[in-house]
Amino acid sequence: MLDIKIIRENPEILDAALIKRGAKAIAQELAAMDNSLRILQQKLQDLNTQRNEVARSIGQCKQHKTDDSEFLKQAAEIKVLIPALEEEIAKATLELQNILDNIPNIPAEEVPVGADEAGNHEVRRVGAIPKFDFQPKEHFDLGEAMGTMDFAAAANMSGARFVLLYKDLARMERALASFMLDMHTQEFGYTEVSPPLLVRDSAMYGVGQLPKFEEESFKVDDKFRLIPTAEVSLTNIVADKLLTEEELPLRFTAYTPCFRSEAGSAGRDTRGMIRQHQFSKVELVSIVRPQDSKQEHERMLSAAEEVLKRLELPYRVMLLCSGDMGFCSTKTYDLEVWLPGQDKYREISSCSNCGDFQSRRMKGRYKELATGRNIFLHTLNGSALAVGRTMVAILENYQNADGSISVPEALQPYMGGTAKIGVKK
User: How far apart are CA 219 and CA 198, in angstroms?
Assistant: First the structure.
């Protein structure tokens, strides 16, 4: 959620940001609504003051045994006016809040302008694209041929966009999660967390998933939703809290299942493990001071990149343009891994700096040492990495002519020393 002061004092900043994101400029409309609301609030304040004054006058009349009929008449009128005005204020507040809740974050100055992924900028490429002396296959063909990936049985029990993993691939999923968590906790200083998978709507609202993206999450009942990412649980650790400056930075990581309805992706990636309703992911979340968030963003990106480097998977770093960036983000890097079976790079991680956008919704702050002021925290999140997509990348980049898959050297200790899977016996 944006600071209302931007709309009051610098509406041109908001309109420029919305235009950069390809949205309609509405700052003047919001400013008018905000001004009308403030006028109503001032009227209510004046009425409350008047009510108190009338009450004092009635008391004085009773004390001195003088006529208080005029004051009683005024009190009766005020008694009717206040509830009506309160109702009008509540309606105007809700109307303004509903609009504010759906306004995206302001892009950072260095974010390129663009309408969609075609406007993203490539920052760098890392790793050599493998060359094969045979036609490389896609991951689902490889997995099904090994008998370790079953989409049909999963569809029979759950429908499309689910998979059953067996044997070596089930073990690889677990191994990848352990490998990533060990690296992030032992080398990058993240605290491992086992968070709730079910959260209230208020937690989803706090990270910007509601109300705008309501149909993209799975609602269990009137109380809970399944998390679409551990970002929801990890970021909400600081909801409604006032931290000390000495506690910062906070860095959390978690390995969890994630659940997404994929409502806006009908017809996309219908085969395979690229886009599923349930998938596993290792998430990174940082909570920092405003002056530290840019540097923390680069640090988080390097942690995600390190996973790909150690697995020796070729990838590229993309700076997302204004039209392709997430709702809460002020700046986002995507990591795209090379998939030989598709002959192109595909997203495997997004690392985003959300500034104080989420903390304003969550009311997460810290007390600044130098001034004693309460300052909104800056929040950052990143996949490091999506485990299923990392497995997809390993299958396709490490495939052999006989259909077997070599295991990346860095992962072998987590798989009991296994150097190759899918070997025909």
Answer: 9
Upper half-sphere CA count for residue 56 (Cβ side, 13 Å)? 6
* Cα dihedral: 55, 59, 64, 66 (round 10): 40
Handedness of CA 45, 47, 49, 55 (dihedral sign): negative
Q: Which CATH number describes the domain made up of 4-100?
A: 1.10.287.40
- CATH architecture assignment, domain 117-421: 2-Layer Sandwich (3.30)
**Which residues, including other chains, have CB under 8 Å from residue 405's CB and lie 6 or more apart?**
142, 146, 394, 395, 398, 399, 420, 421, 422
pLDDT digits (tens, 9 = 90+) for 331-361: 999 999 999 999 999 999 999 999 999 999 9
Cα–Cα dist 205/200, whole Å: 9
Per-domain boundaries in the chain: 4-100, 117-421
Q: What is the b/e burial string over 152-170, where b = at least 16 CB atoms within 10 angstroms of the residue's CB? A: eebeeeeeebbbbbeebbe
pTM strictly above 0.90: yes
Give alpha helix (H) positions in 321-418: 357-362, 387-397
Q: Which residues are catalytic?
A: 260, 275, 347, 350, 389
Q: What token pair was written down for 94?
A: 């809700």
For the record, the structure tokens of 251 come out as 């860095």
